[in-house]
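Shapes recur. Our protein:

. . .
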Amino acid sequence: MENKGPLAGITVVEMGQLIAGPFCGQLLGDMGADVIKLEPPGEIGKGGGDPMRGWGGGERPMWWEVIARNKRAVSCNLRDAEGQALARRLIARADILIENFRPGTLEKWGLSPDVLMAGNPGLIIVRVSGYGQSGPYSSRAGFGGIGEAMGGWRAIVGDPDRPPSRMGVSIGDTLAATYGAMGALAALNHRHATGKGQIVDSALYEAVLQVMESLVPDYVASGHVRERSGSVLPGIAPSNVYPCKDGDYLIGANQDTVFGRLCDAMGRPELAKDPRYVNHVARGKHQEELDALIGDWTKTLTIAELEDKMVAAGVPAGRLYRPQDMLDDPHFQARDAIIAVPHPRWGEVKMQNVFPKLSATPGSVRRRAPETIGQDNADVYGEMLGLDEAALADLQARGII
């Protein structure tokens, strides 16, 4: 029997746009769910479709090919009463609804959870927003970067003598989306036991806060405020990027036994017994001088030479990968970490595979991203709602789909 993924048989309706909601849909689709993406009808760039269709870098932006994979695309004008009615009919047949509009938008469109769940008591509604569905800030507009700032991330990223930096990816959005997907799976388990759905409220700032380790309790307990520290974590040494003859290389040898192995690889076994470096606390107090000492050694080696030494010594270490490194790397290849998805326009699109890997029912990329807005209108509206060609043509002519 063909494996279709652990969420085969689950129907997801995805509303919203840009990153947080669509990434949540990507995660569920990767695991086998039938994800039906609703987009505004019209031309791309003129109010139609998800703006993600044009996002990405280079001359041929490809982000859409990743975030919209495993989805069927239908068009639906949610600002029109007839479009709202059409959406309600679709959602009545769904297991999960994903939306990332500003709180109150669904309610304004007559698509409130109360209305939707009255017609579908088992419905799980994933609501991703900047500040959550309640609280004094809930109605504010909130993008991922704002959630990163409020959740504590931005203030501690970068060099201490410069303004806060941002990570090179939309981490606030993808964290909130990931927690939304996790909440949906937890809610599915609850529904298996009770038959009842529920609302999953995933706020951007709370998703970021969740990964901030002991930031708050450290402050409450001792007044410690974590600050920007560049490429190191204060007191965690050695763990840094070190210079080589032909580039930089990351070494993480901050555990006592691992540090001893690094010292042996350096030909300096006495350093492991030096009072300045003998344990975690001592190394943390002498972090800068230890990093300088290690850097003086790594400068004498190429990256390949240093990597051979680190692998032989059992020291966690690694190169700073760029895209070509990933494509060429034998470990990526052995685990199919990057796959090639056939595409009628580009021949193929190489992208990250589905993660995590499940041993019995792994997810997969079964369907490339929909090329046009409303590409699957006939299939979805015909299959789920019984609309024929004439009905669809009429809805399209009046701008409903």
Notes: The chain has a mean pLDDT of 96. The chain has 17 helices and eleven strands. The longest strand covers residues 34-39.
